[in-house]
Amino acid sequence: MKSTPRIGVALAGGGPLGAVYEIGALCALEEAVAGLDLTACKGYVGVSAGGFVAAGLANGLSPREQCRLFIENHGAQGRRLDPAALMQPDWKGYAQRLAGLPGVLGSIALDAVLGLGSRGRVMDQLGSALPIGVFSNEAVHRQLARVFSARGRTNDFRQLRQRLVLVAVDLDSGQARPFGMPGHDDVPISRAVQASAALPGLFPPVKIKDRYYVDGALKKTLHASVLLEQGLDLLICLNPLVPWDGRAQPHGDEPGAPASASDAPRLVELGLPTVLSQTFRSMIRSRMELGMKGYAHAYPRTDIVLLEPRSSDATIFFHNPFSYAQRRWMVQHAYAETLRWMRAHRHSLADTLARHGLVLDDKVLDDQNRQLIDSRLPPRGRAQKALRRLERTLQQLETQFA
Questions:
Q1: Could you count the other beta carbons within 10 Å of the beta carbon of residue 236?
Q2: How far apart are CA 288 and CA 239, in angstroms?
């Protein structure tokens, strides 16, 4: 048994609430495993929203500290991340496309006069005038750059003590780009996070040098092989996106959960967004299952622990992954669910961890009332009281109508 195990962390995407879920799960894991320091691992790989959390860990931001900075918004001004700023419309992109619209319309009119127009050609020309992203992702780069500029942190891959890899996909070639690996480590970490999380349609592709990049999840779910090839004893993986299984018996205390499996809704009745969500989650999960089998075969000396929500978890599936309204509640839910999973797999998990000198803390696991944060933080002053009341009202409405 090695005195210092080589541990890696691989974090998948899942939108803003996916990152929130990962922070809560990592808080539970670090507290329940004695001797585990998630800021002192051998390496980290993050894809999409998971890159946000991975970059924080590599910069020495513990899961608890990330919770305070990014979810509870505690800490010095300018060193916190304002979630609302990440969902601003891409006004600059809209303006650029609007400025080019007269030229597109002129081209269509000229083709019509010359008899060159066709329905397909017109649609292609109009398509080039549409915005390439609904929201701007530039705030991701700006705010993370400020967070990583604090003393003891860095926005430079080459100055990190551990390996950090953030994967994006080159839009024009479809190839994965592992930012942080040698030859691809001269990009600011904040810019790489922005590129890795640029989900097409929602966010515009991110230009780095002379190339454009989009969400790394388009290629693979975890991209864990970039760490496994470096040699690991233990790999901890988190995937917050799993497909809903209406046949599974849910827990009755979950908001929005049916009383029994037979009462579960048929997803086709809930409309296009729900159908697309289930389809996307199923594709992500299927690719990850294949990846896990490949990792186990190619790296038999590495123990792999995978943390995911339950397939019957209505809280995860039926909440909008791009909403921050319930981030405090969601991080607590992830924390409690991860501890529940660890209790259910106590013996096998303990055996795996023991091979690497790690021990489960039974006192933490057996405390079923343990809290990560108080989502009902005490108000401070009249304005804060009003904001707290408003937030509670919005949370209740979102829970009721989600």
A1: 23
A2: 9
Q: What residues have CB less than 8 Å from 28, skipping those under 6 apart?
A: 334, 335, 336, 338, 339, 342, 372
Instruction: Give me the helices (H) in 311-401, please.
Output: 314-317, 327-344, 346-354, 362-365, 381-401
CA 257 distance to own-chain centroid: 24
CA distances from residue 186 to 154, 155, 171, 189, 206 in whole angstroms, order as listed: 13, 10, 20, 9, 16
At 256 the pLDDT is 46
The tens digit of pLDDT for each residue in 41-53 reads 999 999 999 999 9
Q: How is residue 355 annotated by DSSP?
A: T
Tokens linked to 184: 């691809």
For residue 273, give the H/E element and its range.
Answer: helix 272-298
Strand partners, 213: 170, 206
Q: Which of 217, 398, 376 is nearest to 315 (CA)?
A: 398
pLDDT (0 to 100) of residue 126: 56
Closest CA to 22 of 54, 65, 45, 44: 54
Return the closest-CA partner of residue 202 out of 320, 351, 331, 115. 320
How many of the other CB atoms lie within 10 Å of CB of 384?
Answer: 12
CA–CA dist 63, 364 (Å, integer):
16
The closest of 1, 4, 10 to 304, measured between CA atoms, is: 10
- pLDDT for residue 360 is more than 90: yes
DSSP 361-381: -HHHHT-TT--S--SSPPP-H
Residues 365-387: pLDDT tens digits? 999 889 998 655 444 445 445 54
Helix, strand, coil tally for the chain in percent (to 5): 50, 15, 40
Pair of tokens at residue 260: 């029994």
pLDDT category of residue 248 using cuts at 50, 70 and 90 = low
Phi-psi bin for 202: left (phi > 0), alpha (psi -120 to 50), beta?
alpha
